[in-house]
Amino acid sequence: MGYTPPNSFGAGTVISAADVQENLDAMNKYVDGAVASTDLAVDGWVQSKHIMRGHYNTIVNMHSFVSGLNGGRVADPAEMSFVGDGPTGRNNKTNPDLVPFPNSTIDFHLTAAADVMFQFSAYPHTPSVNGLVSPATTFATLFVDGVQALQTQCATNHIIDTNNFQDSDFWIPHYQNVWSGFFISKNLAAGDHTIGIRGTTSGRHSFLTHWSVSLEAFYR
Amino acid sequence: MAKITTTNVEAGDATSVAATNAGFTAVQTATATGALNEENVRSEGIDRRQLALHSGTGSTGRMEPLVYMQMEDNLNSGAIVDTVYTGQNGTQEFAVNGPPDLLLNFTGLPGGYLAISTGDLIRIHYTIYLKSHTDTTYTSAGSDNAADANRQNNPADGIGLLFFPTWQLTGGGAMQVLPNEEDLLTNFGPGAGVTIDNTTSRTDAVSFVSLEGTGTGGGASRFGGNTTRMVHGTWSHVATTNYTVYGIRLYGRGPMVYQGDGSGNRQLYVPTWAAGRYATAYLDIPQSGSTFNFTLSNGQLGIVVMRGDS
Hints:
Chain A is mainly beta. Chain A is built from two helices and twelve strands.
């Protein structure tokens, strides 16, 4: 029910200040909380001109929208990251420590609780080094807020160069693995968060190239 | 458009009944049923308060564009568990069911299913870790056993283990092939294959996992079944009809060979292993017996459903 003036003025009548004020008061009440849902048009509400642009933060490569966040980190073409066997998996420790692969971590801020999906990929490379006999394995896992998501664990063996030719056929073998995975955090609380790839190796060291970590958060 | 147009009374004008009535009537007209529209709120823009909360099954508390997001894994009390799938030759599928099982089910949702509407964007993600297999001299260019060494210069065959997600569209019913994906739930072979394409026999959801690996233990070798390989598969699809999804399950099948079918088409083929070109005197795959055992460990199944026109 739209606004209806309580008073109308007939021909020849006096326009009283009280009646005019009553009409204005009614208008005030209508605007100030008496608009009924049936007063609203049923369509044509949202046009592109009404939607706010997202905000892109170039420093952290994060795009903020009304409905959530999109962002991530992609390694530069010539960039490398790595972990060493100290302090991780030297001598095949039973419970090796996992340390961050440098520059594989991103921070983000949620303004409200959100469902968040993370994805990551990387090309690991664990060189052959004299003295490595058993396949030295490098493991990597996604961490969310410092908590290991073990279900995302990936691995690769070191490049085995039995004849020490170190030729291209051996340095880029068929068993070179690509790491890729995802993880979903439901109803992640509003506030600051961190995701990143951490790893451990029982080789001397393991390198990453062409890695990426991304997130897409949908506010609840 | 709910605009109010009135004629203001200026200094020196005589106040009239008609003009006074017209002012209030203009407001009444502008606020009549169904008259208020975007012109009245445009300066506010759209913020989170104005985005709809999806009211459909399973989407409680979620705001567009997200309808539903869920993930399951096969950890056992937080620990990774290996499961061996024995006697595989590619002629039929096997469910990746552990234990622990790897099943994304929606029994906890109202009605026991996930409701997907026409136009929804469905995104299925999965990962599964192929830890090892039992062909200890394997390379795709031929076995590296002592009797048949130096095959590394052979052209490699496209041999791999396949993984693919399926879904259950009726309560208690069988898992079904995803729309327009090649049917790998049907048995075929050995000595037979299926032709794949980009229309109704797609492999968009299929992951093809190389069997290349290293040796194990002190005899480290460039050849063998120690694959240590994680695979990440996805399927993105805009629903062309409504679906009620009761569950999503991952299957494996293989080894199979990716090759031409002789007519210029692409094919997934199930050969007779340890025979023909894979016999001992040739590629020698597998080096012992005619089947493979696959050890799988950590895996995940996830789904994201998005909608933009609620």
